Amino acid sequence: MQPAASTPTRHARAPLPFAAIALLALVLLTVTLPALAQTRAWLDRSRAAIGQPVVLSIESDQDFGQPDLTPLQRDFSVVDTSTSRQMQMVNGRISRSVVLAITLQPRRTGELTVPALEVNGQRTPPLGLRVTEAPAAQPGSSNAYIETQVDDPTPYVQQTVGVTLRLFYAVPLVSGQLDIDAPQGTSLQRVGEDVQSTREVNGRRYNVVERHFLLVSDRSGDLQLPAARFTGRAAGGGGFFDSMLGMGQRSDLSAVGQSQTLRVQPQPDSAPQPWLPLADLRLRYASAPRELKAGQASSFVVEAVARGATRAQLPDLPTPSVDGAQVFAEPAQYEDSFDGATPVVKITRRYSIVPNGAGRLALPGIKLDWWDVKADAARTAALPDMQLEVAAGSGSFANATLPAPAPAADVAAPQASGDSALPVTDVGAESTAARLWPWIALTAVFGLLWLGTLVWFLRRPRPVPATAASRASAIPAAPSVPRARHGLPDLRRALDTGTLDEVGEILIGMAPSPARDLDAVCAQLADPAQRQAIDALRRARWADGDGAQARALLRQAFASGPTWRVPAGGAAQGEALAPLYPRR
User: Fold this and answer.
1) Which domains does the chain have, with CATH numbers?
2) Which candidate, 181, 206, 209, places its Cα nearest to that of 195?
3) Which residue spans traverse the membrane (predicted)?
4) Residue 233 has what pLDDT?
5) pLDDT more than 90, % of the chain
């Protein structure tokens, strides 16, 4: 009996462990989760007033980062963003959600659309929002309201318009933001610091924050100035310290101003060029040149006050051209301020005039053409001409004279509105001569007395000892060295408190050899750094450099005093001593 044939035995496969199954399911869930992600978006309201915040909520069942909010900034301002997460279990299933809340503030009225945003590879649907005008807040009845003041509702193209926002609030504020958007085709610039005050309106006390802006339109036509907006948080009960520490109640506070329409006028064909639209322009002499001498600089200051412009719009005060003299201008100084809602710019510029000779000098007044936006007419602001008497100078200018001026035509000074010139000190020939004659006579008397004393001193007999006489004949007299008129303390004081003209005069007076200008001073200096500092001083005086930098260079270079060159007569002095020693 043969044994039965054996058949191969099939072993049963062992079941996978539970941990492996769970891990596999988790991997599959992770791979397929993005495809199953659900994202939706909605607004908390479909209708809102201008300035009223609107919340855009975006919900997803997955975490997502901050989406690109740039598409929203066309019609909305993004005020705040916040993220919240929720997780719950229903029938053994865990569900979670992430909600991003974006607080928006409409920039304009009308039918607006909240554009789609990309979140986790998906795009949210566009949402419609109707924005209407906000009802005007009644002063004295609301906790906060805004006043908007425009200094000119019918400006010209490129005219600077002053815009003033005033926020009135009657409750303590923890935080807040006051904004206004620039219309298209314009520039809106905030200037100055906020001004705070208190006012009583309809029996209620308000705190007031005043903020200034400058608006310039580049095109004519109707211009819609949007309403200003304020959003903030007001402190509730519990006192000020409780509110600051977060222990008191807080509430949202908002206010919206009123939009305004400006009618921008085009530039008139008859307007002077360059185009300078202003509310007012006045010129005056802040100081006049006095005691003019040939070859020496004397300064005068011109001041201009322009209403309705910024410093960037104003041209530089021109430098007058004077026959028989050189005129140099220093950089202008500007001072900005506000008169109500109107910007005001004050320009101050110092000039130095150097006559070429003695005689009568005609200084023409500065003139500026501008357009009067109030009267709709061309104007010219002008300073009066001055006739100056120049005394004789020294050195090469002692005998230099000015040519006789041509007889001036009898032309009345311009009386256009806006022209202004304050009275200038009379520097005519008659008054100058009347003041100088007593001094000239007194100087002549003292001069005669001095000459008589000198003649007597030189002619009186003086016995000279033989040893002294022989010694005097053997040793030649040392060459006389002129004494400097100024010293280092004078230079330091001028660098700290004086003008650049005074610094130059003191440097000229410090030279060991007579010098009539800074070129002669540089020729006597041995230190290159000191010569470079004087070169910077000249550039700053003639409106071609930086005055502050020139002062710094001068302080550094002349800290220990000027370094003068060895006099050219040094070799001659050495030859004078040579006969004392035998030559071989």
Assistant:
1) 40-132 (2.60.40), 144-264 (2.60.40.740), 279-391 (2.60.40), 488-558 (no CATH)
2) 209
3) 436-458
4) 85
5) 17
